[in-house]
Amino acid sequence: MLKSIVIWAITLEAKLILRKYRPRVIAVTGSVGKTSAKDAIYSVFSQFFFVRKSEKSFNSEIGLPLTIIGAPNGWHNPFVWFANLLKGLFLIAFRTNYPKWLVLEIGADRPGDIEKISKWLVSDMAVITRLAKVPVHVEFFASPEAVVAEKSKILNTLKDGGILILNADDEDVLTLKESYRGEAFGVGFIKGASLRASHYKINYAKRDGQKIPQGITFKVDHESNSLPVDFDGSLGRQHVYPLLFALAAAKLQNVNLVDAALALRRHHGPNGRMKLISGIKGSVIIDDTYNSSPVAVEEALQTLKDIETGGKKAAILGDMLELGKYSTEEHKKAGALAAQVCQLLITVGVRARDIALGALSAGMDEKNIFQYETAADANREMDNLIKEKDAILVKGSQGIRLEKVVEEIMAEPARAKELLARQDNEWKNR
Q1: Class of the CATH domain delimited by 2-266
Q2: Distance separating alpha carbons of residues 195 and 249, to the nearest angstrom
C-alpha cells in the first residue's frame, strides 16, 4: 500500500516537472541492448547538450520518475524516499536549471508496463534496439508475441513529428515501422539502412607474444560518406548497434557525424556487458554478467568463437531467469552452442544444469563440463580450472551473481568496484 502511494506521488511529480520544464525526450526500449544504447546516446549528447539519462537500469514505474526528478532509488530507506519527494516538490515550486534532454530507458517486466507509461510520457525520439524471439521476462507474458506487442507501445509516446530510430537488421522491429506513420530512421549492417555499419572487426594488441583483444572497430556509411569508429574495452558485434543509435540520434539533431564519432571516443560501455577484463594467469575475461537471455547468450558465444587466444576458450554460464515454459529448451540450446565454441564449460545454477545437458547432447566431452549450484561453489574451483592465456566468457542472469566469479578470477580484484556490475552496498549486502 505504502509503495503504491509513493509511486503515485513521484509519478505525479514527474508529470508536473515535464509539464513545467518541457525537456526533449529520447525513449529507449527493446529486449536486449537498452542500457548500452541509452548510455551511448548520453555519451554523445553530453558533449553538445545539457542532458540526463536513466541511471543504471532505471527503467520501471519507479525508475522513470526518479530519473525525471533526478533522485536516487531509496530502496528500503524511508528517509531517502522522503528526500526524493521533497526534491520533486522543489523542482515544481521553483525554477531551476533543468536538463534540455532526457534519455530514458523503458522496460517491460510485466504486461501493461509500457502502456501505462505511454499515457503520460511524450517523446521526441524513440529507439527500439532488438526484439528477441524468446525475450527475458517472457515468463510473465502469454507469449513472446505479447512481449513484442508491449514493447511496441513505445510508439504511443512519440509526439507528432517524432522520429523512430530502429534496428533495421531485426525483422520484428521492422514490422513496427509499418505501423508508424511518422519518420523512421533505420540503422544496422543491412543494405539500405539509413546509417549502415560495415567492416566490423576485433582489435588486438600484442603482449608477451600473445594477441590480446582490445575492443572493436567498424565503419559507418551514410549517403556518400564513410567514417571509422573505434570502441575499446568491450567486445561483440552487438556493441555496434548502441553506437549506431547514438550517431543516428545526434545526426537527427544536426550534429555533424564526425563530431559525434569523436564524442564516442570518450564512451565506455556499462560494466557487466561484454567488458574486457584482465584475468589471472594471463587470461582474458569477457564479463557479460549484468543479465542474460537466449539471444544475448548466443551473441556472447559467437564473440567468444570469433576471438583469437593463446589458450583454451571457456564459458561460465549461469541460469537465464524468467523464461517460464521456454526455460528448459533455451538452456539446452545454449549448451549446444557452447559445445561448438568452448573447450571448457562451467555452469552455475539449477536451471543451468540444462546447459550442461545440451552441451553433452551436442557431443561435448563430460570431463570438460563442470556444474555448480552457486557462484561461491564455483569460486572454490576456479584456480584449478583456469589455465594460462585462456579466454573466458562469464554470463548469467542478475540473480545468479556471476560478477562474484569475475572478481575471483580477475587479475586486479581491488578494482572490482570500478570494473564490475552490482558493486553498490545494496547489492553487495544481498
Answers
A1: alpha beta
A2: 11
